[in-house]
Amino acid sequence: MTAVEAHDPREATLVRLRARLPAHLLARDAEADRLLDALLGAVAGELAVLEADLDELYDAWFVETCADWVVPYLADLVGLDEVPTGLGLAGGPRALVANTVAYRRRKGTLGVLEQIARDVTGRPARAVEFYRLLVTTAHVDHVGGDRPATASVRDAARAELSGLDLAGPLSLTPGLDPLAHTAEVRRIGSGRGRYGIPAVGIFLHPVQVYEVGAPGSPDAVPGTGTHGGWSRARRLPGGDDGYAFDPLGRRSPLFAPPPRDEATGGIEHLAGEADLPVPLRPRRLLALLAAARRSGDATEPLPLGVRIGATGTVLPPEAVKVRGLEAVNATPRDQVLVDPVSGTLTCYRDCAVRHPADGVFVRYAYGSVADVGAGTYDRTEVHEAALALDACLSAGGAGAPYAGHTAVRSGAPAAGSEKDTLGEAFAAAEAAWAAGGGTYEVTVADSATYEESPGVDVPAGARLVLVAAGRARRPSDETPAPRPGAYTPSGVRPHLVGDLTVTGAEGSSVLIDGLVLEGDLVVAAGRLAGLTLSQCTVAGRIRVEETAERGNGQLRVRVVSSVVNGVSLGTRVPSLCVTGSVVAGDVTGAAAHGAFEDSTVRGAVTVRSLDGSSCVLDGTVTVEHRQTGCLRFSYSGPGSRTPRRYRCVPEEADGTGPGPVYASLDPGSPVYLALGRGCSDALRTGGESGAEMGVHHPLRRPLRVAAAARALAPYLPVQAEIGMCGS
């Protein structure tokens, strides 16, 4: 039986029917032109349909396994009046329906409010009864100092939780303030008041946490390269003695990895700091280090790791100190001072600052509001969609040729199949294309830093797929290896220092996915047909070069879920599509039709024609042909000249109106270019379907918050008033 037959329900049923017949009947049937076998085949087909229908009917009894269309019927059975839909959640409202009975048994408790908020919004939540944080006046007979009217300058831990000495990530730690406050007259439902007796606040945490070099991750395999999945720390500029955990040298707060165990104690469990995606406080890091030091277990999980050299040993907890709370010792061993607030560290030996010649490598966790830009998250869905929309002529049919595959890993042995640099992998691709065109895959299998400026020349009808992929799929026994798509794009975030140059002939294309590029992505003069940048972070610009004879006049540029510092297309590129991305600089394309969707552009946009939806174009937009195209549910800067507009802000292209207010303009911040709470509702809810404009439109955060408020109303304590805070 072939592999296809093994996965065919009809064929599997036919095998079972044959097994029930005596051997002599099967032998007679083989001599009689297999008439019985044909009859069994017809019966097997109908039996397979019946069995599949029975399996679906059984699955429909359970909300965890039923089809999506069955969920509203199960909700009606448990008396759930409203089933929130269209919130962009992967599992839909299944969790809400599954837990409704448990909710009602615990109505009026904080645990239920937290759980409902989590199930509806898909984000961690913390519920706070504000009457517990009101200042109390001490009685002479009952002296209590738990809620004084003044904050103690000696209790540094409480001050740290309140954000008094963490001005940067203050907005990222909602709901953890332990300090008492005076009562407010304004009601929490108005969004202005908070500390009142009936007020209950629901703090939603929008940040997601991603790990780099996580212990046990598929890329952290000993003996498969020098880095083992760790990232190289970046020397801070300007003569600073420290290093940044971020490979681009940005000061970004560190986070503790999320709990491995999803079970957090059930509905009765109230979320604490360890359950929430909040920045790592210095004293919390010190407590985690102290626990590891006391245990003496080298395998004790820590929120970060440091090692000197690519193949050096990991520094023990005793050698990792917290800046401002501990001091280095006079010892010949390596020690580091870590500042989790800014995401930086300094190396010491014998109390002197040291800059190791073989580099500093780190394992850590960082935060971001959405899966945008290069990251260690699972990028499979977006990557496969980008492959399907690729413009390469050879990829148009199901039988597109496959040219080969090369894996890149820093420190790979010269005699092995893996390459140590991207330049070597590109040379292997060009050698394979010399024997014939097709798709050639280059996978970067670690989070290392590659200091090179590689270039590749893609021949006519060929395609290059450059993707960060930390885990290889094991081919099945029936499928010869290598095969197209034999990788999983997740787990790693490689960093390239230098420009990446691609040149293409007629009908060729390039797809780049998951890389951090500290330089420009340059398309040299040629005839490249397609360039797709998917889930990448480019500190430089996308730059298309041209000559009189070779101007890339058929090039279609796609930017998907990426962060780019600017786009310059020259005078001949006809198409630019930006989807779910951030462009932090100008976009220029005199001949290009710009298609922008769910994106934020912090610069001027100059294109020939324009179609846009749910975007924040925070700059002057100049469109040459304004009779075609449309701008919908979007914001454009003052003085813009756009095509016809539909429900945009401001209403007129050259008018004045509310502009965007961002939570942060720092590229290292987890809430970079997220619309802040002070932003006008015209932008916060002005996107299509009532979601926010810009790159975070697919998250549908306003819709989730509103749905959570409606779902929480029946479960509130008597006379309590709810307020959605920190969302």
Summarize the structure in words.
By secondary structure, this protein is of the alpha/beta class. Among the domains are: 3-59, no CATH class; 68-205 and 707-725, no CATH class; 209-368, no CATH class; 574-695, no CATH class. The protein is built from 14 helices and 39 strands. The protein has a 17-stranded parallel β-sheet that branches. Strands 15-18-21-24-27-30-32-34-37 form a nine-stranded parallel β-sheet, with no helix packed on it. β10 (344-349) and β11 form a beta hairpin. The radius of gyration is 29 Å and the shape is globular. Residues 1-6, 166-170, 216-225, 394-399 and 473-483 have low confidence and may be disordered.
Give the structure's gist in a few sentences:
The protein has 727 residues and is an alpha/beta fold. It is built from 14 helices and 39 strands.
Largest sheet: 17 strands, parallel
Helix percent reads 10-25%
Q: Please compute the radius of gyration using only Cα atoms.
A: 29 Å
Structural class: alpha/beta
Secondary structure tally: strands: 39
Number of helical runs?
14
Q: Proportion of β residues? A: 15-25%
Structural shape: globular
Distance between the termini: 56 Å
Average residue-wise pLDDT: 85
Would you identify the regions where 5 or more consecutive residues have pLDDT less than 50? 1-6, 166-170, 216-225, 394-399, 473-483
SSE blueprint and pairings:
Layout: H1 3-6, H2 9-19, H3 23-31, H4 35-59, H5 71-77, H6 94-98, H7 100-105, H8 110-121, E1 125-129, H9 156-162, E2 199-204, E3 208-212, E4 231-232, E5 234-235, E6 243-244, H10 282-295, E7 305-308, E8 320-322, E9 335-339, E10 344-349, E11 352-353, E12 360-368, H11 380-388, E13 402-408, H12 422-434, E14 439-444, E15 449-451, E16 455-458, E17 463-468, E18 495-497, E19 500-504, E20 509-513, E21 516-518, E22 521-523, E23 530-534, E24 537-538, E25 542-544, E26 556-560, E27 563-564, E28 567-568, E29 575-579, E30 582-583, E31 587-597, E32 600-601, E33 605-613, E34 616-617, E35 621-623, E36 630-632, E37 635-636, E38 645-646, H13 681-684, H14 701-712, E39 721-725
Parallel strand pairs: 2-39, 8-9, 13-14, 14-17, 15-18, 16-19, 17-20, 18-21, 19-22, 20-23, 21-24, 22-25, 23-26, 24-27, 25-28, 26-29, 27-30, 28-31, 29-31, 30-32, 31-33, 32-34, 33-35, 33-36, 34-37, 36-38
Antiparallel strand pairs: 1-2, 3-12, 4-12, 5-6, 6-10, 7-12, 9-10, 10-11
Helix pairs in contact: 2-4, 8-14
